[in-house]
Inverse folding.
């Protein structure tokens, strides 16, 4: 069976409309997401999504962060959570957030009682001066939170 396809010419105005629509779609998908920045409300929403309505406590989390990061592209970050790391008392997860990056979630680390220590070191990218927040979930269901500011002098992921 042969199918007949009829072709018709596209006028100049139709072509310009299609081109303009395509250019607008390209610009909106490539430029606008880069303008979005997280804020304290987005971090709070991300934390609430992780832990629900559990109350957070201070303490147990020690940050290793510079007060001033000369380059936001590679900011050293480390943490340690004070825990005996036994079968009955250990750190399950630590989640790290940055409250002014394009996306607030930076990293999640998962531990077991066999981990020995709840400690990690890495590097992260920061778009500007902001607070770094760590949330530690313990095996007994308790949640600890710590916050530390970092001043960025040269922009990282966004300027």
């Amino acid at each position: 069976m042969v199918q007949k396809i009829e072709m018709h010419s596209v006028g100049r105005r139709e072509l310009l409309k299609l081109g303009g629509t395509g250019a607008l779609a390209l610009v909106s998908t490539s430029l606008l997401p880069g303008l979005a920045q997280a804020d304290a409300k987005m971090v709070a929403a991300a934390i609430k999504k992780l832990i629900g309505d559990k109350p957070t406590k201070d303490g147990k989390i020690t940050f290793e962060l510079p007060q001033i990061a000369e380059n936001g592209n590679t900011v050293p970050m480390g943490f340690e959570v004070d825990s005996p790391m036994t079968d009955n008392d250990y750190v399950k997860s630590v989640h790290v957030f940055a409250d002014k990056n394009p996306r607030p979630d930076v990293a999640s680390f998962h531990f077991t009682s066999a981990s020995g220590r709840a400690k990690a070191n890495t590097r992260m990218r920061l778009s500007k001066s902001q607070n770094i927040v760590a949330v530690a979930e313990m095996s007994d269901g308790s949640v600890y939170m710590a916050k530390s500011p970092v001043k960025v002098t040269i922009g990282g992921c966004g300027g």
Residues 39-152 form a domain with the Immunoglobulin-like fold (CATH 2.60.40.2470). The longest strand covers residues 143-152. Helices lie at 12-30, 32-35, 40-51. The chain has three helices and nine strands.
